[in-house]
Design goal:
Keywords: Signal
Strand content: 35-45%
Order of helices and strands: HEHEEEEEEEEEEH
Organism: Roseateles paludis
InterPro entries: Ice-binding_C (IPR013424)
Distance between the termini: 16 Å
CATH topology: Jelly Rolls
Structural class: alpha+beta
Number of helices: 3
CATH architecture: Sandwich
Radius of gyration: 22 Å
Protein name: PEP-CTERM sorting domain-containing protein
Pfam families: PEP-CTERM (PF07589)
C-alpha cells in the first residue's frame, strides 16, 4: 500500500531545520524615550536582566580626580583598553576624549557620584572591540547638553550601529536618532543574534563636529526574549511531531 506523507511534515522539517541553525537574525536596537526618567529605568532594567554584567567604564581609563558640575581635566586617547572581570580585554578606538561631560541619571556613577563620559574630537565615530564578544550591549547617549557648552548644539543627532562577529561578518545594523530642539538623552539596547566582537558607532544624518556624549557601555550575554518567528516555528514543530506520532500509531 502506498504511503503518503502528512501535509504538515514538510513544514515541520523546515521549522526544525531553522531551529537547529539557531534562527540567525539581524541585530535589533531599541532606544528609550528621550527623558532622564525613562533613561534611568531603561538602564536599570538592562542591569536587572543580566545574570553576568561587564562594564566598559570610562572612569577607569580617565586618570584624574572627577568633580561634579565641571568638565575639569580632560584627556585624549586613540585607544582605551579595559580588562573585564573574566580577563576579557575590551577596547575603544577613535579620537576619544574623556571627562565628566554630563552630570545626571544615566551618566553618573553609583550613588550619583561623578563619572567620566566619552566624546569624540570631531565627528562622533568610534569602534568598540569586545574581545570574545557579547550578545547584548547597552549605553546612554546625550546631545544638546554638557559641561562644555561651547561644544554642544540643539540640532539633535543620529547614529548607526554596525555589529560584526569574530570573523568580521556583519551580524546586523540599527540606527537611533535623538530629536533636535534642545537637550535630549536616551538609553540604547542592542540585542544581537551572535556574539558581537566589533561594534562600530557612526554619526549619520547631518554630521556635526559638535559633541554628543556616551556613558559607560554595559555588556552581557543574557538572551533576549525569543522573537515571534522563533516561537511560531517551535509551536509548528511541536504540533507537527504530535500529528506525526498519531499517524504512525
Amino acid at each position: 500500500m502506498k504511503r503518503t506523507s502528512h501535509p504538515l511534515l514538510p513544514a515541520l522539517a523546515l521549522g526544525l531545520a531553522a531551529l537547529a541553525t539557531g534562527l540567525p537574525a539581524q541585530a535589533s536596537l531599541s532606544a528609550g524615550a528621550s527623558t532622564t526618567d525613562n533613561l534611568t529605568s531603561a538602564r536599570q532594567s538592562f542591569i536587572d536582566s543580566a545574570t553576568t554584567l561587564h562594564r566598559m567604564s570610562w572612569t577607569d581609563a580617565y586618570g584624574y580626580p572627577l568633580a561634579t558640575g565641571t568638565g575639569g581635566n580632560y584627556t585624549f586617547q586613540p585607544t582605551i583598553s579595559l580588562t573585564q572581570a573574566d580577563g576579557n580585554i575590551t577596547q575603544a578606538t577613535g579620537a576619544i576624549s574623556l571627562a565628566n561631560w554630563v552630570d545626571g541619571p544615566g551618566f553618573d556613577g553609583p550613588a550619583a557620584t561623578p563619572a567620566a563620559d566619552l566624546a569624540l574630537n570631531g565627528y562622533e565615530d568610534f569602534d568598540l572591540h569586545l574581545g570574545h564578544g557579547y550578545t547584548r550591549i547597552g549605553l546612554s547617549i546625550a546631545t544638546g547638553v554638557g559641561t562644555k557648552m561651547t561644544e554642544v548644539n540643539a540640532q539633535g543627532a543620529s547614529f548607526d550601529f554596525l555589529a560584526y562577529d569574530a570573523s568580521h561578518q556583519l551580524i546586523g545594523s540599527a540606527t537611533v536618532t535623538l530629536p533636535a530642539g534642545g537637550a535630549a538623552s536616551t538609553w540604547v539596547t542592542l540585542d544581537a543574534s551572535a556574539p558581537v566582537a566589533l561594534l562600530q558607532v557612526r554619526e549619520s544624518g547631518t554630521r556635526s563636529i559638535y559633541d554628543q556624549y556616551f556613558g559607560d557601555v554595559l555588556l552581557t550575554n543574557t538572551a533576549p526574549v525569543p522573537e515571534p518567528t522563533s516561537a511560531a516555528l517551535l509551536a509548528l514543530g511541536l504540533v507537527g511531531l504530535r500529528l506525526a506520532r498519531r499517524r504512525l500509531r
